[in-house]
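re: the backbone from monday

yeah here it is again, tokenized this time
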């Protein structure tokens, strides 16, 4: 999730003209991917690549989508005939939901990928790398070409803003009530506010005294407007730090 950790990998891919760069976290359950052009393929867009293979074999499957993911992922799942369903962030929560609904695949922005179609339904980054290499070997085209048709909307990174543990859930609940009065809202995990040209998210972290904030717009102007709406809402709570976009 931190692009500074991928600087060496990106440079090496370009220097060696590699087909792909693969990175793993310390315990091997999260994958990071750099394409043949040295560009980072973030977790939600990497899932598009996986879903195109999975849904071809499992048409109409339920597709669990973490609330932080791009609308581009949701749109592609629908185009492929899948049934997107928003789910909470957190690898244990996603694995539990997968078992409940019989999902064959799911993933997180952070690089956790859960394959239950040909594997055991847990997050094994080495296995996820193998699946990506199989897709590339069968496609006969570079990864950058496979992803060229995925819309690249204008997005912020996943921003973490300090907020006391004792208040973070109360503030998210208050924001949810407020936004519901004016906008369409998805509240499966925090509040994802849906606009005609994008979305904004505020959720309480599962593990830290922070609120997680992210926004996406179809244009730079849309993104700026959505960020402003989120910042104005958060500004009413003095215990919440200002987002550093």
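seq for it, each position gets an aa:
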């Amino acid at each position: 999730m931190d692009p500074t950790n991928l600087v060496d990998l990106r440079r090496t891919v370009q220097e060696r003209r590699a087909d792909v760069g693969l990175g793993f976290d310390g315990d091997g359950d999260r994958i990071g991917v750099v394409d043949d052009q040295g560009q980072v393929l973030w977790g939600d867009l990497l899932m598009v690549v996986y879903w195109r293979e999975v849904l071809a074999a499992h048409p109409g499957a339920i597709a669990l989508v973490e609330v932080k993911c791009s609308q581009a992922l949701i749109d592609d799942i629908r185009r492929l005939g899948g049934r997107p369903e928003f789910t909470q962030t957190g690898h244990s929560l996603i694995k539990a939901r997968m078992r409940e609904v019989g999902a064959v695949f799911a993933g997180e922005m952070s690089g956790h990928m859960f394959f239950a179609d040909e594997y055991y339904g847990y997050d094994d980054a080495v296995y996820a790398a193998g699946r990506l290499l199989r897709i590339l070997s069968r496609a006969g085209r570079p990864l950058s070409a496979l992803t060229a048709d995925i819309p690249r909307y204008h997005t912020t990174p996943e921003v973490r803003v300090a907020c006391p543990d004792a208040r973070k859930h109360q503030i998210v609940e208050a924001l949810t009530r407020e936004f519901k009065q004016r906008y369409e809202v998805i509240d499966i995990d925090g509040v994802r506010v849906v606009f005609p040209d994008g979305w904004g998210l505020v959720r309480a972290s599962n593990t830290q005294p922070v609120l997680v904030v992210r926004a996406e717009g179809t244009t730079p102007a849309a993104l700026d407007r959505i960020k402003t709406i989120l910042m104005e809402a958060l500004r009413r709570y003095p215990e919440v730090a200002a987002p550093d976009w």
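The longest strand covers residues 210-217. The radius of gyration is 18 Å.
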